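Attaching the record inline, Q. Sequence:
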Amino acid sequence: MSARRPPVRKPVRKPVAGTPAWVTPVAVLAGIAVVVAAFLVIRWYITPAPPKTPSQDATALIVAQITSLPASQFDTIGQGTANNLIKPVSGDPLTGPGGKPQVLYIGAEYCPYCAAERWAIIVALGRFGKFSGLQTTTSSSNDIYPDTPTFTFRSATYSGDYVELRTVETSDRDQKPLQTPTASEQQLWQKFDPAGSIPFVNFGNRYAMSGATFLPDILSGASWQAIASELEDPNSAQAKAIIGSANLMTAAICKMTSDKPASVCSTPAIQGLEKKLG
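Structure, as predicted:
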């Protein structure tokens, strides 16, 4: 599955071929008017309106909902429909300021693939600790999979007993610079993904992944609450993709924490995925 590479270059539209001399300017203008009108009608009917961003209070409830899913849901879904992009890497253990193993995320707010993957990251890390300060947003309106509903890590904090989280949102929805990785984070990013793809996730220098484990189209046009509710249905496309991806991340994190906590890491689904990761 393709990944996002910052900065994204805009495609250059080729000039339209010249109009034959026998076509009058009036006819040209009339033809343009018809084409524009048809485009607007088609766009009106087939382009979903951007989802309405929930309030901060509603956002907190949605985060609480997707980070308190029952263990049975994770066991039932397993890998689901998620593509396993998590690969073993080698290096000195990556730890956070508190001395615990660290998960490093590098992405951008405009990126639709980052938008999709943040759902899985939040679900996975919610099993090991607690988020605060998460805000809702959408990916760029002018990119593939426009206005994908998601969250942003730009002002979020995370606390847990077993793992630490470091997040870097390099650009906002308009691709303007936002946050910058440290020199050491840049080195790790370059080492494990020379192409500089996003989203990039490093699991304690034991595993790393670049790209999205599922396509953002399954989130298109949906509200945050609707997606959160779909995660409670193990047969929904959203649950199979997001929870499947979260399970893969959980397995990588469990390898970092020596299978702690046991309530999360000792389940058959996670043990099976740990073997897959190697």
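The chain has one domain: 56-277. Residues 56-277 form one domain.

More tomorrow.
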